[in-house]
Each structure stands twice: as structure tokens, then as C-alpha cells.
Amino acid sequence: MNLDQQTLTIRLSTMKDAQALMDIDALVWTERTAPEPMRWTSREAFLRHSPPASQLVAEADGIVCGYVGFRDPTGLPAHSHVCEINIAVHPAHQRKGIGTRLIGAAKAWAAGQGKRKLRLRVLSTNPGAVRFYLKCGFVEEGRLVREYRIGGRETDEIWMAYFLDG
């Protein structure tokens, strides 16, 4: 089913979203997409890391199917114009335009918060994600070469950015 056949709502996360978001993390953040798989030890641990309103949630016909999380990278006033993001879409809902809509919503949200730059990190072992971010207007800012050893393979961490002021 594509977006033309379903209703997609993007909204700030709430406490009731915790389990669905934890389930998405368990499916999406694997050795191919993260330095180590994401496994939350409890709902409380998840909520400490991702409190309500720290993510934009995509809900298709009432089902949470993805999110984009955002945070201040350092907490320093000199860094307050930058927002670090991470995005995950449930595998059953990928390739339907939801990720693109989430990135668009994140850009609008960040601009409304006075942010001037979005940044993210992606592993070189995830070329589909790199292509997706490039399609969304992100540029590669840098690369930490052979930053991780995952599954016996040395992997680069790519830093990407989108400048909200053009």
C-alpha cells in the first residue's frame, strides 16, 4: 500500500508510542545499520533516552510505522543551531515515501525551532541509507575511516548534513 491509499499523520511522540518505537528500533538498528543492534532493556530506559516529544512519529492509518528523532548534539550554546537526527521506518512500511515525509517534517520542525543545520551519522555498510539521505538533500561532511569493526569488517562512519538556510 502506498501513501495515496492510506492516511499518514506525522506528530510529536507521546508516552503511549514507547512500545511501538522500541519494536521499530529492534527491527531497524542491526549490525548493518548501527555499530551494535538496538535492544532496550526496559520501557523506562527507552523513555529516558527518548522522552515524549523528542521524536516525530509517522502513523499510517493509526499504526506507528516510523520516526525521526532529534537532539542537541552537545548542549553547548555555541552548538544550539545544530540538530542531530536519526530516522527509522518499520521494514513493512519502507519504500512507501514515509521516510521522505519524515525528513521533510524534521526539516520544517527544525527550522521552526531556529535550527540552521541537521546532521546525522550513517555507516558505509548501509549504502541504501546514504542514497536516501543524498536524495533528501544531505551532503557528506566527513568520514571516520574504519571507525568500527562490525562482523569482522572495518566500517566507515559517514557524517552528513543538511543546511536549512540553503
UniProtKB/TrEMBL annotation:
Source organism, top-level taxon: Bacteria
Segments forming domain N-acetyltransferase: 8-165
Gene3D superfamilies, A to Z: 3.40.630.30
UniProt cross-references to InterPro entries, sorted A to Z: Acyl_CoA_acyltransferase, Bact_Acetyltransf, GNAT_dom
Signal peptide range: none
Keywords of the record: Acyltransferase, Transferase
Cross-referenced PANTHER family: AMINOALKYLPHOSPHONATE N-ACETYLTRANSFERASE-RELATED-RELATED
Protein name as it appears in the record: N-acetyltransferase
